[in-house]
């Protein structure tokens, strides 16, 4: 199981600030899903908010609209292949989590699950903005709980030591960048 | 002067897809400014759109609202210190570009300038969304022209060889990550 400690809500934007790819997990009734999303960013500090694009054709969209909730999971390099597949396969073709052998744990404040193998987790509650959703597939949400693997994120700061245990950034067509060296100016 | 070749509009989202920090440049009348923004992301492919958070307290906000235009410049590691200072100083205290010794070139379709020392440029025209601007400081814009340094971006693909000539990601407090190694799964 992933290691996980609570992140102060006012520091939760730091999980997402450097622009990593995310997995959006969702659940409604007995259905659940996960999809990849690069188009996610912080929107406010306190209370923390995020913005994420969820295409109208996806099962995730249906589950997020039904439940008003999702989790932004921040995957590690180690599960990059799962991220790619989660962005290529539709949950409408069957239980994508089972198909991709994704294991999850329950979240604390939302029904959507936390995806194992990730390094950070933002539990989000949608702030309904029907016009944004309709015109731009854009969802605004408040972060209501946040978690991180304490071996790579503590005191509001990412610190990557191992090759496989770092965040990743999506380019296109199965190509990613690892998050590289940290530096200070 | 930065090398620069046109990027096809339908590939322009690839400049921003991996979540680099940006510089937002703006101009209205005789005034101009530049600020750092990590909270920027693609919003659509074709026509390409972006979303970016521009705080209501900034001079950039005033110039973007007056002109309806801005440029998202994607800086290189080499100018990280300028990015930090552009995010720390207000343009209300005097011409920030002059103070930071930032040189610019004219854009092709908007009045805001292109910042030298960057690797990619997205010329953007605001799609007015007064509610998003007021409630979330969130601007939606259409990308009307895009450019990249052809030594690091061609055929819709970033390819970084030199240490100083790569994109960067902002953490907080003067700390950045370089964009790391590319890999394919």
UniProtKB/TrEMBL annotation, chains A, B:
<dbReference type="InterPro" id="IPR002563">
    <property type="entry name" value="Flavin_Rdtase-like_dom"/>
</dbReference>
<keyword id="KW-0285">Flavoprotein</keyword>
<protein>
    <submittedName>
        <fullName>Flavin reductase</fullName>
    </submittedName>
</protein>
<dbReference type="Pfam" id="PF01613">
    <property type="entry name" value="Flavin_Reduct"/>
</dbReference>
<dbReference type="GO" id="GO:0010181">
    <property type="term" value="F:FMN binding"/>
</dbReference>
<comment type="similarity">
    <text>Belongs to the flavoredoxin family.</text>
</comment>
<dbReference type="InterPro" id="IPR012349">
    <property type="entry name" value="Split_barrel_FMN-bd"/>
</dbReference>
<feature type="domain" description="Flavin reductase like">
    <location>
        <begin position="14"/>
        <end position="160"/>
    </location>
</feature>
<dbReference type="InterPro" id="IPR052174">
    <property type="entry name" value="Flavoredoxin"/>
</dbReference>
<dbReference type="GO" id="GO:0016646">
    <property type="term" value="F:oxidoreductase activity, acting on the CH-NH group of donors, NAD or NADP as acceptor"/>
</dbReference>
